[in-house]
Amino acid sequence: MEVNKRLQSIKNARRSTREEIFRRVSRVRNFIDDNYLEDINLEELAGLAYLSKYHFLRCFKEFYQISPYQYVIQKRLEHSQMLLKDGEKTLSEIAYQTGFIDRRAFNRAFRKAYGFSPAEFRMA
């Protein structure tokens, strides 16, 4: 199953250690799912997992094939799609509400992820 595959990707000798690290990293992923619109930093996430930031980063990437930062951006962009479809807010308001520093950063991340701008997505 998917969890077993992820557990095997961790390079620790004992299965119990791998399972514990997976639990910790999964708990942090759940935290991100609940708080992705907030200001989140790597030190905070690593602290929640009780791991050094470098070990946490390595484990997160091994489990989910994406860095924690990229995961947060992905969650914010998914949320922005709902706001864009709603059509009630400006692009600047959506950028700010979804945790981007400005509209340009939002546009750049959106275009990189989806291949077109938020305005083009809204018109489609």
Cα end-to-end separation: 38 Å
In N-to-C order, the SSE pattern is HHHHHHHH
Mean pLDDT: 91
Q: What is the SS-derived class?
A: mainly alpha
Described by strand count, sense and barrel closure, the largest sheet is: none
Radius of gyration: 17 Å
The number of strands is 0
Proportion of β residues? Answer: under 5%
Protein model, in words:
There is one protein chain. The termini are far apart. The model has no long low-confidence stretch (mean pLDDT 91). It contains eight helices and no strands. 75% of the residues lie in helices and 0% in strands. Helix 3 (42-49) crosses helix 4. With 124 residues, the chain is mainly α. The protein has helices spanning 2-9, 15-35, 42-49, 53-64, 68-86, 91-97, 103-114, 118-123. It is elongated, with a radius of gyration of 17 Å.
What brief labels describe this structure?
124 residues, mainly alpha, 8 helices, 75% helix, elongated
List the helices and strands and how they pair.
Blueprint: H1 2-9, H2 15-35, H3 42-49, H4 53-64, H5 68-86, H6 91-97, H7 103-114, H8 118-123
Helix pairs in contact: 2-3, 3-4, 6-7
